[in-house]
Amino acid sequence: MDDIVRQALAKWPNVPSCTGWLMLDRRGNWRMRDEAAQASGSPGTAIRHDALLGFINRNYGADERGQWYFQNGPQRVYVELGYTPWVVRLSVDASGALVLQDQAGGVFEPAEVFVDEEGGIVFRDTQTPARIAVLHDHDLDIFSEHAALADDSLSGEFHWNNGTGLSLQPVRRADVAARFGFVSSPAALA
Prior knowledge:
Layout (H helix, E strand, L loop, with lengths): L2 H9 L6 E7 L5 E3 L2 H6 L4 E2 L3 H9 L1 E3 L5 E5 L2 E7 L4 E7 L5 E5 L7 E6 L5 E5 L6 E4 L4 H6 L1 E3 L6 E4 L5 E6 L5 H5 L10
Parallel strand pairs: 1-6, 7-11, 9-14
Antiparallel strand pairs: 1-2, 2-3, 4-5, 5-6, 7-8, 9-10, 10-11, 12-13, 13-14
């Protein structure tokens, strides 16, 4: 968390939080959702300002209920999640090693891999507490080049670096939030 945010929290500790105004979409884009976007259920306008994106990413976290938020100075802005709290991109570096990177630019080291009924890939990382991330759909080809799927398309093995094989486990998309302890729509709890 930025020092300026800590200072604002100390100066104004009781600023009410808000919900519905910020979304992390299925592809890792931060989106502003004005009243019209919220009313229509649209994802809103993608944020493109690099400094603002960096500020959001540095001040992004979860509360004790599994609700993800952006701490905007003294105000907590709860985030609507398009799927998971993190979105990762998969690439191959110059040495041929696979690299997973989250929407904030951080390294993501997978511990488990899940496949939902729509073909979405969900990773749990090695951190404590674990982060849960969906794979950006543009990277499914790279994923499939390093995975051996069983006939059911919901199990098999993902071949990670150094010969590490991670079992592919089935998961229902509707169960992901509850299974991994996060809230997709904090507005629903407000």
